[in-house]
Write a structure and sequence with these properties.
2 copies of one chain form a homodimer. With 267 residues, chain A is an alpha+beta fold. The first copy, chain A, has 2 domains: 95 residues, 2-Layer Sandwich (Alpha-Beta Plaits); 142 residues, Pseudouridine synthase I, catalytic domain, C-terminal subdomain (Alpha-Beta Plaits), CATH 3.30.70.660. In chain A, a hairpin with an 8-residue loop joins strand 2 and strand 3. Chain A is globular.
């Protein structure tokens, strides 16, 4: 049985999603929990990495349960949560097609970036929002997010890992970027067909720079128009970011015409 | 100058409000920050203690700034926040009457208790809400809070400290107890003229016991009617509780008739 997991985490105490020597990554801790239950090594595949300090409401991952194991998905959800720290929770578990792949099948992701726009950051927002005490022009911020929406070469908004294959294709489509505010609590929700490495934090950092008046909309536009020549270095802190959800064609089938699946992008 | 502080904290890493040997209490850390700024010892007086793990949005405290110090309240707010950990923030600072006392002058307090009513507690609610996975009857919960509202002898809802003076007067008035829900996120807001030691957690624990069907409204009523004989032992966990605000007559003067101040209660 291939099991599809929806995972939430508080990224604060971890070294990001992706397994690495020394552990303390979310993938390492999940694999250790599943291995304890199965008493054998397990590889868990996520929809994509998240950096140290980045949170998730709806990361998606999958792994294969051997036929010898008779636990159903609901039992897996409970058993994994017993073996995980409270900062990582399995929110949903479901049996899925043996062909399902959390990373290669993803057709879209939604991220939310939280800012706190007031002189003092409340303690309960520490590690959960970017504290921006400067005055922000919200109409400029909306113009900035509108400018970034659509299909563009986002090379100026990517940190490259030095992998020629994944660094080569830098065209992505942002379906929507919406601002919502509740007093000093401000959030930017970015939905797209995929995001380059650190792209959401670089987009948010640039948009906020415009909203503080330190850079212009023309500067932002130039980054989209000259992706090979220019680079944005304004990276919003990890702690404000959360991966809200990952979209798959199988979840959308009844909403789309038969031939209407958007192109795939891995991020 | 007597300085009045409005303080927010994440209670998770601390051993409660009240100073104690070994430190790591909020009062100890505040006094150390003020002492560093003034280069002399400082006593800070809070409106009342909060237990280890209990949070605050609006704790109130005061202390006296020597005449030799020329910092204004806004400079104090900034300087204290520089010397405090991010889990404790001064949200407001104001010069107040030399006769103002944060504890003796308090005429009311508002607490909010957060519960999460779903099978899995999201990581970002860890240490911030009581996870109650059981089915709750919200209309029974509202009946329970309605029953507890008003003036009663709350001795059955108090943990005693063994101090005969403060343990003797157990009559308090709860002005309002309101339930609000947003999906699985459930909060009870308790406002009253004062609360006994652990009273909000004991009231919440008892009300939730009724809402799960494990105890009746008649049981709850019997605790109010026989305060000397009966005792409620259902204590809701500290992590769900936050002290939202403290009320003072001086803040209300224009809302009240000249002779209309409610009786004082220290809690």
């Amino acid at each position: 049985m291939r099991l599809r997991l929806t995972i939430a985490y508080d990224g604060t105490p971890f070294r990001g999603w992706q397994s690495q020597p020394g552990g303390r990554t979310i993938q390492d801790i999940l694999e250790a929990a599943a291995a304890t239950i199965l008493t054998q090594p397990v590889s868990i595949h996520g929809s994509g990495r998240t950096d140290a300090g980045v949170h998730a409401d709806g990361q998606v991952a999958h792994f294969d349960v051997p036929d010898s194991c008779r636990m159903d998905p609901a039992a897996w959800l409970r058993a994994l949560n017993v073996h995980l720290p409270p900062e990582i929770r399995i929110m949903a578990a479901a049996a899925t097609s043996p062909a399902f792949h959390s990373r290669f099948d993803a057709i879209g992701k939604t991220y939310r970036y939280h800012l706190w726009n007031a002189p003092v950051l409340p303690p309960l927002m520490h590690n959960r929002a970017w504290h921006v005490p400067h005055t922000l022009d919200l109409s400029l911020l909306e113009s900035a997010t509108r400018l970034l929406t659509g299909t563009h070469d986002f090379a100026a908004f990517a940190a490259f890992r030095g992998d020629p294959r994944s660094d080569a294709d830098t065209i992505r489509t942002i379906h929507s970027a919406s601002l919502s505010t509740s007093g000093p609590d401000l959030s930017l929700t970015w939905s797209g067909n995929g995001f380059l490495y650190r792209m959401v934090r670089l987009l948010t950092g640039a948009a906020i720079r415009v909203a503080t008046g330190r850079a212009s909309l023309a500067w932002l536009e130039s980054l989209l128009l000259n992706p090979a020549a220019l680079k944005n270095h304004h990276l919003a802190p990890a702690a404000g970011l959360s991966l809200i959800s990952v979209a798959y064609p199988s979840d959308l089938e009844h909403h789309l015409p038969a031939s209407g699946l958007p192109g795939h992008h891995i991020s």
